[in-house]
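Course assignment 3, question 2. Fill in each field.
Student: A.L.
Task: Predict the tertiary structure for the chain below.
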Amino acid sequence: MNRFNFLLLLVSMSAAALAQEKVGDKWVDNKLSFKVIDQSVKTNGELYVCVADTVTNNCIENLKTGFKVKVYDAEGSLIWEGIGSGRAKGLKIPKALPTASYITITAFKPYVTNKTTGNYIHQDKPISIKYNL
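Answer field:
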């Protein structure tokens, strides 16, 4: 890794770390969301997501949370739903969904877990996104 990339990595990690604040006995960060890294829902039934900082739009590799996924067609009808544990970035849908129009991803709980420390980082509400395919 060259020096510029290393410096950029350190700056982005520092920015993400500063977003957390201690409120009472809890760590809180309301600048987190899901980010779709890659997807082939229509052709292969695959979806890759991470927890990301909304300011930098970068994945935060040591954060995880379980989530619900719902896939809708163009009329807004639910065509598939499932869950992801958050331990892996990938989620395999049993079959390709060629009529899929958009997906929603919503965390089960209003916190994410730091995989390194085991600490919860709380949000005011469970993180969620709507992603157009």
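Instructor remarks: Helices lie at 3-19. The two ends are 34 Å apart (CA to CA).
Grade: pending
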